[in-house]
Amino acid sequence: MNFASLVGNAPGVGQDPTVDRLTADDDLFVRMDVILGLPVVNQTLWRFPGTVDVDAFASLAEKLRRGRLSRLVATHRGPGRAHWRYTPDAGHFSVQAEPVPVGGEEEWGRAQADAELDIENGPAWRLVAARTADDSSVLVSLVISHVIADGGTGAVAAIEAVHGLDYTPGTAPGLVSNVLDAGDLLWNAGKTAVQMARASRSGPPVSPARVTGRPAPETDVAGAEIAPNVTVLIPTADFAAAAQSRGGTDNSLFAALMVGVLERCGRVSPGDVVPVSLPVSSRTPDDRRANATSGATAFVEVSADRYEDLTAVRAACKEAYNRLAANSGKVAQRAVVLQALSASLTRRLAANVTTPLCLASNVGLVPDEFATLGTGEHGELSVRAVTATDDPRRLRDRKGGISGWLAVGADTVMFSVSSLDPVRIPDVATMRRLVTAELAAWGLHGKHWGA
């Protein structure tokens, strides 16, 4: 996805005031945050050379605070969709006075991800910059609530800020607008529920069964870290050669790596079929949505021959994208119905909902503006999502596996993996061992972010 091509709202371009309401996708993340207590936070870390001026990021932050990220969730009494309330208070910026200890860069990044966010009162995102104690590096963290922005929205917002582009905020709705919206929401939810019921009578779709390996609910995870992450920077030429020599692509190698980490942690076994979730951006030029991502699912068999030949994995990914339209339609239908339900009913329906076993987000080529943040220097990137809960049991009970990100730069490929399984991957040390071993099986080696 070329995020730079999706930047809009150039200076001098006027727009009529509009009410920006939360979409069904936005509402899903609100419910995960407010109702289920499992808020999702996106984080990007940059490591720049020490010659970069830390205070220069204040200008970037000010532009972000007046751009598409400067919004909070505003609700009203009665049924109807919430709307975005635009305000600079949605964002926070600070330069940390205390230097980061050398070797403590990753711990610093994690601490930034754990900072409190508030989607209704702010801040819903935080930009923090700091220097390392030896003055050799400048670290930057951008943490955004997934309610406010998915990865694509966050990247577009940063690029717009670098270019100094204006963003026209939406306006607050009046009583008539809210009444009309409530009627539209309930009508669409009811109509969609009927369509789903009719479709279900034709029988469930035929697809490979999900693997049965799951963490035991009674396992004690009190000492587990929350979503430990490892990010490795691999030479781009090496990564491309590893994929091409096996008849694959960057994307199919990425999917195979993720399946390999799952196998190494004992979550899946040879012969299992792993549903690999492949997020796909549906963002269009001048798109005002906070979340604009669809999901494809590739069914990848855990087979030893994938290390020699990626043809099967590549075919599985291609089939997943071909099925995308139909699958996205069903997911979108459920989200539309859910948006009209009460919090108590949502809580009951979500009692047995699970998180993905294997989520693989391929960012693609990283735009220069995002890599440099306007500094003229390319920062070393680490991209991740964090489920911001203080109770690892909530993650265990959702039976998730791992989530990963891939981003391709001119010199390095960023491969980032986080654990959603506190039973089998309870800490960074375990994740680092698994990722290092899996990369080595492909003849790949790299440098850990922050090292």
UniProtKB/TrEMBL annotation:
Q: Which SUPFAM superfamilies match?
A: CoA-dependent acyltransferases
Indicate what this protein is called per its UniProt record. Diacylglycerol O-acyltransferase
Organism of derivation: Gordonia westfalica
